[in-house]
Design brief:
The strands form two sheets. Strands 1, 2, 4, 7, 8 and 10 form a six-stranded antiparallel β-sheet that branches. The protein has two domains: about 45 residues; about 180 residues, Galactose-binding domain-like (Jelly Rolls, Sandwich). Helix 1 packs antiparallel against helix 2. By secondary structure, the protein is of the alpha+beta class.
Length: about 240
């Protein structure tokens, strides 16, 4: 009888392990950004962004001012690509094309990234991050900052200055959580950095950018109940040995 119970609990335990892995996978929401860690070697593309026409799913800027580099100064050292700001006050951004119903109103979102900002201009107009919700009728996002360029178009879902204070070492930006007030045609993540003359000597960079949905409460409850059941069966398995 003990052997029968032992086999039962072993089978049940295996099923629970599979359930826990599946539940954990469901909680791991995909990054909506393409090449958020910048490890796909390449360059930024010089182009403005428009919600109706794109270009989507690539990092846009002017390569002479913001570019994807592997110079040994990234967070991971040699071999680690990241986006480095070189000079002038210029934007780095990526637009995300959304399918109808992909992110309905009320969806909770989360933005994470690492950054370094050793020198340069400070304040939200020249060192900032924005997440924008856009409709196809909204105006474009421009690479360069011009007076009256209409930035930011659409709805500002999240915004924050990167500085002050300056970040002398690679730093994890505090996780940004926000909700969508409506369904949008696209989203855009926009970084702004500025430096000129003597201010260009320090390192300014962005890495490991992730924009994703926050797991729904129901999935969190499922994982919790699955783990609780796992503890129960583990105890019964020991008793049956």
């Amino acid at each position: 009888m003990k052997r029968r119970w032992s086999n039962f609990f072993k089978s049940a335990g295996a099923a629970l392990v599979i359930s826990i892995i599946a539940a954990g996978g469901a909680l791991a929401q995909p990054n909506l950004l393409t090449n958020g860690d910048f490890q796909a070697d390449g360059s930024t593309v010089q182009s403005d962004f428009n919600s109706a026409t794109g270009p989507f799913n690539q990092w846009l800027s002017q390569p002479a001012n913001w570019n994807i580099v592997n110079d040994g100064l990234g967070q991971g050292g040699a071999g680690d690509f990241y986006a480095r700001h070189l000079q002038n006050t210029v934007r780095l951004f990526q637009g995300i094309d959304l399918a109808p119903g992909q992110l309905p109103a009320g969806t909770d979102m989360q933005l994470d990234f690492d950054f370094i900002y050793q020198s340069g201009f400070t304040g939200i107009t020249q060192s900032a991050v924005h997440v924008l919700g856009l409709e196809d009728s909204d105006g474009p996002i421009s690479v360069f900052l011009f007076g009256g360029d209409g930035f930011p178009p659409g709805d500002v879902l999240f915004s924050s200055a990167l500085t002050p204070p300056l970040a002398a070492d690679w730093t994890a930006f505090p996780t940004a959580n926000f909700s969508l007030g409506q369904e949008y045609d696209s989203l855009a993540v926009v970084f702004t950095a500025g430096a000129f003359g003597d201010n260009t000597t320090g390192l300014r960079g962005i890495d490991n950018v992730s924009l994703h949905k926050v797991p729904e409460p129901g999935m969190l409850a499922l994982l919790g109940s699955t783990l609780a059941a796992g503890v129960f069966f583990r105890r019964r398995f020991r008793e049956g040995e």
